[in-house]
């Protein structure tokens, strides 16, 4: 701490009573910087506590356990707290410096108060000074703002002036530029007029032209000037032609310009030919730079069209006849051999790849030579498709006539359609590849479509005719097979001496599957040739209708042939029906022939059931094909799906009618054989056995056993072939006919009680068999037959009790009662009359 300062010493001398003898204790500098109260306190008491400080230091050295936190931050020992501790442990006064310290502390407090007052004064003076300076500063800022505003106004005026001067300079520059352009135009016009006067000489006289027009090194400049002169002259002639000349000078000028136009045209033609010749020579040497230079100059003549067309026309693929012949050999093979679609497909793939590679190489040259390569590529690709591809397609696709179809031996219409599909698909791929290489603005897909337009116009008719041709061929094959089978079976039948119905070609699911396969192939071609969904739906409907007609006709004819067998079998049965007054030998021969006719009927029955089963399988195949492949293609056209479903039902209706009639004939065939067996096997003694004491026979009669065995055997085919409602309807009708036939058959016999028991056993046998029909109405009828059979078993007086629970069978029961052996002897007629009267 400082011992004294002069300025502060004078202030303290007037305010403190100790100022005359004591130095200044505190100073303002003691509170500056990093202030520490501990350091300030240590500096105050160090001079008054030297012995304490020494002892404290010794104590610190001897006791290492004293914490370092007891030391002041600036290295001095806290004297006040330690002095108090020593004073408490000593008997003599431990802190004699207390008085001096108290005096020191009081003086320090007074000095602190004086320092605070001094600092407050200084702060007040500084605040006043800051306020004064702030006012001055604000005033200065206001003055500066006014000056800045003035500067901004000056800058704005200066900027406006500069802008005005700039605009004026720009206008002057524009005028100068315009004047220079006009001067240049005038100079060029003068020069053009001079050149035009040269061309305005005698017609066809090009010998007196300027060297410019004959100098090969200035061909580009000459071409440009010639085109300008030509445009000017033609435009002037056009104006003169529109307005009628009224001045003789105009007419003369017009005539003069016509001469110039003619001479310019001749010169341009000659120049263009010269450039084309140079272009060809450079092309032969593969000098691309020279070719590019010529192409650039030629672009001034008709936008370079002649140069582009000339370049494309001189390509080897278009002028070399051997290239065309090689294309034909690659695709069609050697002359005299018939190409197959697979070979044509491979050949087209190879040829089109070669064409694409050639076009790609030409594209590289075109890009390097021509200023408008897209236009050249458009011409090149168009020439490829219209010349090279079209020439090949004309040889490959010979459009057949729908009146005189090509013979099947040469592939028929199907070969043409397959070739058309292969060529169309491969050519479409070529078009896509050429589009990738580059074809400018050419609609390559549209051009490709136009190549096949004549074929696609009549495609649906050709597809329908092809399917019809395939169907006719298949039918001829099947008829030939049937004829061979008929001859073979006829020879065997004559050898055996049997009269068999003629054999027929059975319906084949394989054949129907082949029909569907043809149709699938045709549908795939429809999808290939029809780009629009509506067109595709229309063509698909036409092609699918062909399938419906083919399948409907085929299965209907097959069912009709099967019906013919049933009819022939029926004719055989009718032939051997004999009366009762014949000899035994004739009857035996007739019975043998009837057996043969029955066998023929059973064979025809089985054959028809097989036909029905295959017919159902064929229809299911068509329906599945329609659901999987056809229906989704018909959706884009409203009503097409419903119309096809209706056509499908209509096409199958004739087959359904033939099947229904055939099933009726099957029932007639079965019932005829049942009646024959009953007539041949049923004996009068079966139901009226004599009372000879022998136990009654509880077995079914022989006739019943034969009939049930026959029905079980023959109906096995019906159970396999029919299903669903068709099976239920057939078996129900057969059960009704069997029930009616048995009733009529039993009306021919007389029954005694033991015969009634035998009859009931037969009815039980029949009932058990018809239970396999799963027809509740038939089961009920045979159960009632069993009840009615009781009229032959019970005593006459018990007859009235039989019908109390079943009044519905009274009429049939009355007929049965009349067959009782004791009907007359027991006078049952009168008893029954009174019984029926009481019931009614």
From TrEMBL:
Which superkingdom is the protein from?
A: Eukaryota
Q: Where is the Exocyst complex component Sec10 N-terminal domain?
A: 99-215
Residue stretches making up the Exocyst complex component Sec10-like alpha-helical bundle domain: 221-831
Q: Give an example GO cellular component term for this record.
A: exocyst
**What keyword terms does UniProt attach to this protein?**
Coiled coil, Exocytosis, Transport
Entry-linked Pfam families: Sec10_HB, Sec10_N
Kindly indicate whether the keyword Transport belongs to this entry: yes
For whether the record's keyword set contains Isomerase, the answer is no
UniProt-listed GO biological process terms? exocytosis; Golgi to plasma membrane transport
Belongs to which family?
Belongs to the SEC10 family.
The name on file for this protein is Exocyst complex component SEC10-like
Q: Which organism is it from?
A: Rhizophora mucronata
Q: What is the lineage of its organism?
A: Eukaryota, Viridiplantae, Streptophyta, Embryophyta, Tracheophyta
